[in-house]
């Protein structure tokens, strides 16, 4: 299990099937990097300048859209995850 | 549905018909990027350094002018949106 | 009507007639960009780090001098405006 | 009249006559930019992060030394002034 | 013994054996730098802007994932350690 | 008299005679810039973000070591001074 | 005597004898810059944004490891010292 620190969030990347205008499914190399993912773990909160911790708005199970170049990709037990800060999450879906 | 986080705002871009001085409607490629949009969702507020949340001034339904290079474009259920921070909103129209 | 947000201010540019040392009125392309304008709308105030809003010092109707490269030019209903932050205003005239 | 905003200060530049080691008065182009000026107006004070205003230490009539590349030169009613922040003032003379 | 200061953490690097898709163990020069380590000492806490000290979340014995280019490598009594700030720790494993 | 503002300090430069390993006194052009000086005036204190003024630790008469490229050199009544911030003072001698 | 200001610390550099894998002692030019030193003086503390002074954790006599490119080297009464901020100290030894 991975436990993110502070305002960090761990995301499992979601492969979004994408069709062109003509209905052709694009192979992986031709698609732009997906910006959607499922939150699998969240940190304990954001530490403010005054030393208090503010709980995060995102929670385990949320499906989110995030900034394309945000975060760090890590590999753990054969799977790839993205660890980013909550401020890199643009919106929750649904 | 997309729910923006914190001080983020989701905007649906508005195509502004633009005529030249001679009354000719410009095709899309010749126009400069529109800076107007309709707010379709707003976050819960701006988190200050001291850990308090200040509600946003912009609300759902507002028509706004925003900084030309601000925000991130995302595609969701076939439509394109712009997600930006309230500080990138220059003015509310009307 | 345009309503600026936070510490933003909307200015209508003022064409300052300028003569050379020899009394010749310069055509527009030969003049340097004017730095004077009339304030036509002001935001609700400056949001501090601690989350309080401080009212602006500049008010509607003020004629101001501003930093030459500050702000964003926007076109609204055929007229051009400059939207900038109060901190880009150098001085009030009169 | 020009009224500077916040922690800004308006200075009238002072031409300092300067002689070389051999007693020759240098023409304007050969002198380095003067760093002295007379304060003709001061703003209402410095706005801190917590939203309080701290009065300035410099006052109208002070003769000051300032950082060489600080501030913005503006022309008003035919005279040239320098508008800069109090933090660009190095020292008060006398 | 090494005692890290403030929000710093000392990590003993862990060599992660890595196999390619074909089961071949890669020699050291062909592997990417490991991002896992064991915490062997932690500082007294993070000093906030207001002067209070917030205890760290990471503790001695934790196995952590950290940002690839974070920290400073030091050699002490023949062993190599990495000293980094807690904010460079991405997640705790387990 | 020069009165420095805020956390600024005025220093009179001290020429330190320097000998090479062979006892030869170096001419001025061959020496590195001295980093020692005598404090001749100090400002009223450091203005914090919260708007309070903290008195300086350095006082008139102190002999100090300062960062080599810090501050601004000014000429006043024929003498050269260095005006720098207290944070550029490294240590007090004696 | 040198008295460092604020959060500054004065360190006397320690020459660490270093042997290669084959037991040969390296001459000075071939060694990497040592990162160890003995603290000979500490400042009165770290001044926070709110204007309070937090005492330092490092004290006179401590042997410390510091960031390789931190601080300023000064020469005083024929000896060389390094003056750096406490935040550049990575760990205390022992």
Automatic annotation (TrEMBL), chains A, B, C, D, E, F, G:
SUPFAM superfamilies: GroES-like. Heptamer of 7 subunits arranged in a ring. Interacts with the chaperonin GroEL. Together with the chaperonin GroEL, plays an essential role in assisting protein folding. The GroEL-GroES system forms a nano-cage that allows encapsulation of the non-native substrate proteins and provides a physical environment optimized to promote and accelerate protein folding. GroES binds to the apical surface of the GroEL ring, thereby capping the opening of the GroEL channel. GO terms for cellular component: cytoplasm. It holds the Pfam family Cpn10. The gene is groES. One of its GO terms (molecular function) is ATP binding. Keywords: Chaperone, Cytoplasm. Belongs to the GroES chaperonin family. InterPro entries: Chaperonin_GroES, Chaperonin_GroES_sf, GroES-like_sf. It is found in: Cytoplasm. This is Co-chaperonin GroES.
């Amino acid at each position: 299990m991975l436990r993110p620190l502070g305002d960090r969030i761990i995301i499992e990347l979601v492969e979004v099937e994408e069709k062109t205008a003509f209905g052709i499914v694009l192979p992986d190399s031709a698609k732009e990097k997906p910006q959607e993912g499922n939150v699998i773990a969240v940190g304990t909160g954001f530490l403010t300048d005054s030393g208090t911790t503010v709980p995060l708005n995102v929670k385990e199970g949320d499906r989110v859209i995030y900034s394309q170049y945000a975060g760090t990709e890590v590999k753990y037990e054969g799977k790839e995850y993205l660890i980013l800060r909550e401020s890199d999450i643009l919106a929750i879906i649904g």
